[in-house]
Every structure is written in structure tokens, then in C-alpha cells.
């Protein structure tokens, strides 16, 4: 499955690690554009974080993920989001993974051959398709979170905080 990852699923660390971990397991092929990576960088900067190294690492691990959006004549509720759909179409994405569901109407996306998915629903679907792989990815993300702070994270708690509550519940 070719999946265009919107900036709003790339910036939250845990969400990104889960999605890119699934990509590392061969469950999806991530796609993004230079503009989406720049949006990720700026979002991190607004919180006082420098994402330059993480972006470089993601690009190195997934060298085929970069797509160049082509002009696309569509109308979306937010004209600033046309570049996201353009990147999905240019990358021949099956799905556009975004937290911003309302600004990507199903009828507009389906006319372009793209399905809109929220990351939580997508990961629950992948959990059903490849339970061992997704459980392994999430266990690794949990271990990194526990190593970084002493919050005593549980799987369900971490996934809920990461806006992946259904995945957290399904993982137990």
C-alpha cells in the first residue's frame, strides 16, 4: 500500500515512529513531498525542537518516498491543502494518511483514486492484517518512550496520548 503521509502525522513523534515502523515491516510504502517535510520541520520548530536530523534519517531510510507534486485542478475546503493531494496523486498513493479528515472530502479524493485514512484506523487495520509485525513495531516504540522518560508508559496510555487510541486498545 502506497501511503502519502501528511505533515500532521509526521510531526508527532510516536505517531510517526509507528507509521514508519510499519513501513519498515513492509506494511506500507511511505510517500511525502519536500513541502510536507518542511511543514514537519516548521511544526517542530514552533515547539522549540529541531527536526532536521529526524527528517534526514527518514529520507535516508526511505529514499523512494519523495514525490514531486504536479499541478492539480481540484477544489478542497482549504486551498492550502491541494499540494497534499497533488503529492498523493503524483506518488500514485493508495491512501492519504492525515488527521485532517474534514479538509479532504471523500468524493474529491476518490475522483483522484485516493482513499483518505486516519492513522489510528489504518494502524488498526494493519494490526489485523499483520499482528506480529504491528505488535513488534509498537513494542519497540514503547521501549524507546520508556527509555526517554520515566512516565511509566503503558502501551494503551502511550498510544492514546499519541492520538492512536483504538490501536492502543486493540494492543491491550
From TrEMBL:
InterPro entries: PIN_dom. It holds the Pfam family PIN_3. Residues 2-101 form the PIN domain. It comes from the Bacteria. This is Putative nucleic acid-binding protein. It comes from Hasllibacter halocynthiae.
Amino acid at each position: 500500500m502506497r501511503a502519502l503521509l501528511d505533515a500532521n502525522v509526521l510531526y508527532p513523534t510516536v505517531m510517526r515512529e509507528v507509521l514508519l515502523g510499519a513501513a519498515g515491516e513492509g506494511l506500507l510504502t511511505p510517500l511525502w513531498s519536500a513541502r510536507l517535510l518542511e511543514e514537519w520541520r516548521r511544526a517542530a520548530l514552533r515547539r522549540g525542537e529541531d527536526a532536521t536530523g529526524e527528517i534526514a534519517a527518514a529520507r535516508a531510510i526511505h529514499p523512494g518516498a519523495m514525490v514531486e507534486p504536479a499541478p492539480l485542478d481540484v477544489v478542497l475546503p482549504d486551498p492550502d491543502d491541494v499540494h497534499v493531494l497533488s503529492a498523493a496523486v503524483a506518488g500514485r498513493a493508495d491512501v492519504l494518511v492525515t488527521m485532517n479528515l474534514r479538509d479532504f472530502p471523500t468524493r474529491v479524493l476518490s475522483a483522484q483514486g485516493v482513499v483518505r485514512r486516519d492513522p489510528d484506523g489504518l494502524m488498526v487495520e494493519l494490526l489485523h492484517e499483520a499482528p506480529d509485525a504491528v505488535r513488534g513495531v509498537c513494542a519497540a516504540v514503547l521501549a524507546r518512550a520508556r527509555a526517554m522518560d520515566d512516565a511509566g508508559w503503558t502501551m494503551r496510555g502511550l498510544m492514546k496520548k499519541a492520538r492512536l487510541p483504538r490501536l492502543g486498545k486493540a494492543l491491550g
